[in-house]
Amino acid sequence: MTDKTVLISQQGAVRILTNSNPGARNAITPTLYAELSAALTDAVNDPEVGAVVFTGAGDFFCSGGDLNLLAKRRELPASERREKLEGLHDLIRAIRDCGKPVIAAVEGGAAGAGLSMALACDMLVSARDAFYTVAYVKVGLTPDGGATAFLSEFVSRQVLTEMCLTGDRMPAERLHALGAVNRLTDKGAALAEAIALAAKVANGPQRASARINTLCRQAHRATLEEQLEAEAVFMVESQADDEAAEGIGAFLGKRTADFAALRRQKQNPSS
């Protein structure tokens, strides 16, 4: 038995982080902020980890903030309410800025800040029958966790406004059509598909992948000149990296690149 909110497991080079609060449909708690942030840091620092999968226990990804806790915050001064909200926002930043790719595996649904966490991930695998909702308006609240920022990357202002003002559910298939969901699966298969996708990513060049991830994360908000500069900086770095020597050498030698061997050498330089 464990009283941990975040359960940690490993399949090959894939670290699996599970938000385990199934009795409340994996509602977000302050405990999650610290545990998930720490788990992401551990994954980044572990050379055996190439990618991360984030999911929810049971048949639901995350129902958002715990309304029992939120109801009590009206009694706090505004400064304390802001401090507690920053716990969520720091977690969103930790997911977005993770040094290794993070893939969400969504079953059932993602509501409120649960939607924010799913969209903060680099890729998203969803069961076809799952739904997504901003939801806040239904309880007299406004969005947080970056929900409006993430949604605005792939929906128009009009669709964003409708989602936020109605709180209606958006089916996974529509989010897939809009480009927010990478892969749709049958019910119960999202985690397995996310692990398979993560394993494919994890076998790649770790430092080049981190640079690519940074470029992709900032591309939607950078100007062309800013993005050209970032690409130039990373290409110059990558050309001098052992990963490029291995990758180009493997291609020219008609063999499969062994980037995992490079990671082992970095971990054990004397071996």
Strand order of the largest sheet: 1-2-3-4-6-9
Helical residues, percent: 40-55%
Rg of Cα set: 20 Å
Structural class label? alpha/beta
The unreliable regions are none
Major sheet details: 6 strands, mixed
The geometry reads as: globular
- Number of β-strand runs: 9
Strand percent estimate: 5-15%
- How far the N terminus sits from the C terminus, by CA atoms, comes to 39 Å
Number of helical stretches of at least 4 residues? 12
Average pLDDT taken over every residue: 92
Q: What sequence of helices (H) and strands (E) makes up the elements?
A: EEHEHHEEHEEHHEHEHHHHH
Task: Spell out the key features of this protein.
globular; 6-stranded mixed beta sheet; 3-stranded mixed beta sheet; alpha/beta; 271 residues; 12 helices; 9 strands
Describe, in plain words, how this protein is organized in 3D.
- The protein has 271 residues and is an alpha/beta fold.
- Strands 1-2-3-4-6-9 form a six-stranded mixed β-sheet, with helices on both faces. The chain has a three-stranded mixed β-sheet with strand order 5-7-8.
- The protein has helices at 30-45, 67-72, 78-96, 113-120, 147-151, 157-166, 172-178, 190-202, 206-218, 224-239, 242-252, 259-267, and strands at 6-11, 14-19, 51-56, 102-106, 109-111, 123-127, 131-133, 170-171, 183-185.
